[in-house]
C-alpha cells in the first residue's frame, strides 16, 4: 500500500461503506410507503409526495459521502 | 481524463472579473429560458385559449401551481411563493438537462495559461457556487415569507421566547438547522449532478458506443427528480416556516 495509492483506496472505501446506511434508509421508507398506499389507496398522492421528500433527505446523506470521496480522490 | 475538477475553471475574463465556465453556461441557460418565455408569452390568449404555446405553458405550470396550492393551502400565500418555486424548478431542470444534451458540453475549448484545455461549457449545477447560491436564495426567501406572514414579533418569538425556556432551546436548535438546510440544498444538487457528470465522462471514456445510453437516460431522470425535489423541499420549508404555532 504505497503512499500514492492511499487516496484511491480510501476514496473507494469511503463511498462503499458510506452508502450502506442511506440505502437501507431509502429501502425502509419505500417499504412503509408502499404498505401504507396499499392500506389506503385514497391517500396515494399524499403518501407519494411525503415519501419522495423523505427519500430526498435520505439520499442527500449518501451524496454527502460521495462528495467527501470525490474530494479525497481529486483534490491534492 | 484530466477534466474532472471540483474547483471552478475560469475561462473568460471581463475586465478584472474572471468568469467560470459554469457561470457562462448559467447565463446561456437564463437566455434560453427568457427566449422560451417570450415565445410562449406571445401566444397566450386568455383563460380559455387553445393555442399551442398556451397549452405547452399550461402543461408546464399548471401542475406546479396545483402543487403549490395543495401544499400551502392558502391562495394568497401560494400566489406569493409560486414564482420562486416555479423558477427554481424550471431553471434547475434546464441546467440539469443541459448536461445530457449531446454535443453541447465538449464543443468549445479554451486554452488556459497552465497549458490545460478547459471546456467552455459546464452545467451550472455541477458547480458548487451555483448550487450554494440557489440554496441561499431558497432559505432566505423562506425567512422573508415567514416574516411577512407571521409578523416580526411572532417570527422572533419562535426562536427566542423568554417566557418559555424549553421552547427557546428548541427554537435555537431550529435556527441552527436553517443553516444546515442551506448546505443540504447545495450539496444534494451538486453531488447528484457532479457525480452524474463524472459518470457520463467515465463511461464515455471506457466504451464510447451504446453503453453510455442507459446512463444518459438515468441522468435525465435524476435531473428531473433533483429539480422536483429542490422545488418541493423549498415549498415544504415555506409551509413549515409560515404556519402558526
Automatic annotation (TrEMBL), chain A:
GO terms for cellular component: proton-transporting ATP synthase complex; proton-transporting two-sector ATPase complex, proton-transporting domain. GO terms for molecular function: lipid binding; proton transmembrane transporter activity. GO terms for biological process: proton motive force-driven ATP synthesis. Belongs to the ATPase C chain family. PROSITE patterns: ATPASE_C (PS00605). It comes from Candidatus Sungbacteria bacterium RIFCSPHIGHO2_01_FULL_47_32. The keyword Transport applies. Keywords: CF(0), Hydrogen ion transport, Ion transport, Lipid-binding, Membrane, Transmembrane, Transmembrane helix, Transport. The chain crosses the membrane at residues 6-29, 49-72. This is ATP synthase F(0) sector subunit c. It comes from the Bacteria. Residues 10-72 form the V-ATPase proteolipid subunit C-like domain. It is found in: Membrane.
From TrEMBL, chain B:
GO terms for cellular component: plasma membrane; proton-transporting ATP synthase complex. It is found in: Cell membrane; Membrane. The keyword Transmembrane helix applies. It is a multi-pass membrane protein. CDD domains: ATP-synt_Fo_a_6 (cd00310). GO terms for biological process: proton motive force-driven plasma membrane ATP synthesis. The keyword 4Fe-4S does not apply. The chain crosses the membrane at residues 17-40, 88-112, 132-156, 189-211, 217-238. GO terms for molecular function: proton-transporting ATP synthase activity, rotational mechanism. Keywords: ATP synthesis, Cell membrane, CF(0), Hydrogen ion transport, Ion transport, Membrane, Transmembrane, Transmembrane helix, Transport. SUPFAM superfamilies: F1F0 ATP synthase subunit A. It holds the Pfam family ATP-synt_A. Key component of the proton channel; it plays a direct role in the translocation of protons across the membrane. Belongs to the ATPase A chain family. This is ATP synthase subunit a. It comes from Candidatus Sungbacteria bacterium RIFCSPHIGHO2_01_FULL_47_32. The gene is atpB.
Amino acid at each position: 500500500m504505497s503512499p500514492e495509492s492511499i487516496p484511491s483506496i480510501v476514496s473507494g472505501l469511503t463511498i462503499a461503506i458510506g452508502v450502506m446506511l442511506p440505502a437501507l434508509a431509502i429501502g425502509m421508507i419505500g417499504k412503509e410507503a408502499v404498505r401504507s398506499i396499499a392500506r389506503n389507496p385514497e391517500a396515494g398522492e399524499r403518501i407519494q409526495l411525503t415519501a419522495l421528500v423523505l427519500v430526498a433527505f435520505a439520499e442527500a446523506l449518501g451524496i454527502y459521502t460521495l462528495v467527501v470521496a470525490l474530494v479525497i480522490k481529486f483534490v491534492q | 481524463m484530466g477534466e474532472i475538477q471540483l474547483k471552478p475553471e475560469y475561462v473568460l475574463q471581463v475586465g478584472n472579473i474572471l468568469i467560470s465556465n459554469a457561470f457562462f453556461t448559467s447565463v446561456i441557460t437564463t437566455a434560453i429560458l427568457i427566449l422560451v418565455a417570450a415565445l410562449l408569452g406571445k401566444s397566450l390568449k386568455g383563460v380559455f385559449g387553445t393555442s399551442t404555446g398556451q397549452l405547452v405553458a399550461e402543461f408546464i405550470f399548471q401542475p406546479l401551481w396545483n402543487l403549490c396550492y395543495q401544499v400551502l393551502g392558502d391562495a394568497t400565500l401560494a400566489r406569493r411563493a409560486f414564482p420562486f418555486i416555479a423558477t427554481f424548478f424550471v431553471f434547475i431542470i434546464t441546467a440539469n438537462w443541459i448536461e445530457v444534451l449531446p454535443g453541447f458540453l465538449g464543443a468549445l475549448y479554451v486554452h488556459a495559461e497552465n497549458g490545460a484545455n478547459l471546456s467552455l461549457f459546464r452545467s451550472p449545477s455541477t458547480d458548487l457556487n451555483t448550487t450554494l447560491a440557489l440554496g441561499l436564495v431558497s432559505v432566505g426567501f423562506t425567512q422573508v415569507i415567514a416574516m411577512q406572514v407571521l409578523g416580526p414579533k411572532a417570527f422572533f418569538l419562535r426562536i427566542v421566547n423568554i417566557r418559555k425556556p424549553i421552547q427557546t432551546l428548541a427554537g435555537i436548535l431550529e435556527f441552527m438547522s436553517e443553516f444546515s438546510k442551506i448546505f443540504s440544498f447545495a450539496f444534494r444538487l451538486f453531488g447528484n449532478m457532479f457525480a452524474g457528470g463524472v459518470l457520463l465522462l467515465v463511461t464515455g471514456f471506457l466504451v464510447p458506443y451504446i453503453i453510455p445510453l442507459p446512463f444518459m437516460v438515468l441522468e435525465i431522470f435524476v435531473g428531473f427528480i433533483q429539480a422536483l425535489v429542490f422545488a418541493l423541499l423549498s415549498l415544504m420549508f415555506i409551509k413549515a416556516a409560515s404556519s402558526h404555532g
